[in-house]
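Q&A log
Question type: sequence-to-structure
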Amino acid sequence: MCLEKRLEPDIEKHQTKEQAGFRPGFSTIDHIHTIEQIVEKHQEFKSPLYLAYVDYAKAFDSITHESIWQALKHQNIPDIYINIIKNIYIKSTSRVKLDRLGPKINIRRGVKQGDPLSPKLFIAVLQNIMKDLKWEGKGINIDGKYLSNLRFADDIVLFSTSSKQLEEMLTDLSDSSNTIGLQLNTSKTKVTTNSKQTLL
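Response status: OK
Response body:
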């Protein structure tokens, strides 16, 4: 059995309903429909709604390897599998060719391109920071429960009923993301609202 199949159940166990990317039984189309319904309902009842469409700069190339080990440890992945992945990643090197081929450079960031395990590692790392955000009571109230975000792997949509709260959430997310090597792409991160208040 390949490593991905061995790790998937434990990684999946720690994911929440907000993440739809690279998960069995989840569809990003369902998330899109949910967003459409949220927008329609807030328009119908004339309730203020703020959404932030968050984009990361080179997300899969940027997460630190240390954040991968920490996420797997926190999600109860056995040490034997963490060490196997570590050994694979420790051997990752790159060389720059100008006039001649330069020395080997150890790679300390990013997941491996084309590896079926890579998306699982990424969402594990992202979940590890999302769970620590103090967003209880933030977002929008749906049937007595708050929804603060929906995730499409590395793309995130934040929900709020006020500009100030959304700004706080963006700051929280940016600060937490920085700890694992991720940077918000400010040129592609967009905020929309149905309110007449000034946007961020």
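Response note: The first helix runs from residue 3 to 13.
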